[in-house]
Amino acid sequence: MPLYEYYCGSCDGVFEQLRSIRESDEPYPCPECNREAGRIMPTSFNAFTMRDGYPRRIPDRGTYWHLGKEVKRPINVAAPAGQHPDLYKPEPTPMPSKGDQNDMADAMRQDGLRQYHAAREKAASIERKVKKTVAKSTKKIPK
Question: Does the global pTM surpass 0.70?
Answer without folding.
Answer: no
